[in-house]
Amino acid sequence: MRRILSLYRRRWRTAIVTLALAFLSGHLMQSVLVEPSWPTGSARGPLPTPMPPEDNVSASLVAPPVLPTRVAEARLPRTASCTPVLTLDPAPAATVRVGLAAPCHANTRVSLLMGNLAAQVETDAHGRWSARLPALREITDVSLSFGGRFLAASVETPDAASLQHVILAWDGAPTFHITAFEFGAHAREDGHVWSGAPSAPERALQGAGGFLTRVGDGTGPAFEIYSFPATGAEAGGVVRVAVDAGVTEENCGQLVRATAFQTGYTGELSPTDVAFSMPGCDRVGDVVRLQNLFRDMRLASR
């Protein structure tokens, strides 16, 4: 009996100790979770308050630079005007600079009319065409037509009478060529003015001789003008003017036509119709020279 009572007492003691330890452990863990332990000798106070996320970021990162607004600075490309412009400007040696600017008419055929002379020319890849033409009258009139457009302009050329001219105009392939022999010059010598050695207007300005101007692209009307000082040449003498016509497969055995002009004694340009038969096709490559189409120019020295 005593042993049984002793056994029950031990079991109760064990149960009481276990419950006490469990209670103490729960209380201790709650204390640890609620209030952290502080080191010995330190002042006990409130826990430090963490900074809000926004403040942390602004304190540690540098704000990115503000980039300029490129849309506001961008420039739109300018659209080139399609309006064509014809300009006439007087130039030395009784000549006129003719210029066409037509940006929207690149590589376009243009019909030119200057007085009684017509020519077919073509603009370049930028819609431009220019030439320096002799002034045939005191008022130079030039008109251009292309792509349904018509342009016309005039310019005063009071020194037009300082030059005399011979002109040959035709339609089609470049069959004809004016050739001038100044003061007894022979072929390919100084004073032989032709398409292979056209010279320049400044030569006439200096009184040294004449110059040749050719207008036309070979697909339509075309003309050549030989211009020479009317007075004040450095040397007196005679200028012989002829016309060369090349025999080709296109014109051999054919009747060819042209119009010749020459400055008269009153300063007017007198026209003469020209028509002749080219040699047969067995003469292709030959050159026919028309000697008496123009009268000789007789000039007195200064």
Instruction: Supply the helix-strand structural class.
Output: alpha+beta
Radius of gyration, in Å, reads 52 Å
Strand numbers in spatial order across the main sheet = 11-12-8-14-15
Strand content: 35-45%
Helix content: 10-25%
Task: Report the biggest beta sheet as strand number plus sense, adding barrel if it closes.
Answer: 5 strands, antiparallel
Q: How many helical elements?
A: 4
Distance between the termini: 174 Å
What is the helix/strand order? HHHEEEEEEEEEEHEEEEEEE
Q: Number of folding domains? A: 1
Number of strand elements: 17
Low-confidence stretches: 19-79
Mean pLDDT: 79
Quickly describe the structure:
The protein has 302 residues and is α+β, with helices and mostly antiparallel strands. Helix content is 17%, strand content 38%.
Characterization of this structure:
The protein is of the alpha+beta class. The protein has one domain (85-299). It has four helices and 17 strands. It has a five-stranded antiparallel β-sheet with strand order 11-12-8-14-15. Strands 9, 10, 13, 16 and 17 form a five-stranded antiparallel β-sheet that branches. Strands 4-3-6-7 form a four-stranded antiparallel β-sheet, with no helix packed on it. β6 and β7 (149-156) form a beta hairpin. The longest helix has 33 residues, at 2-34.
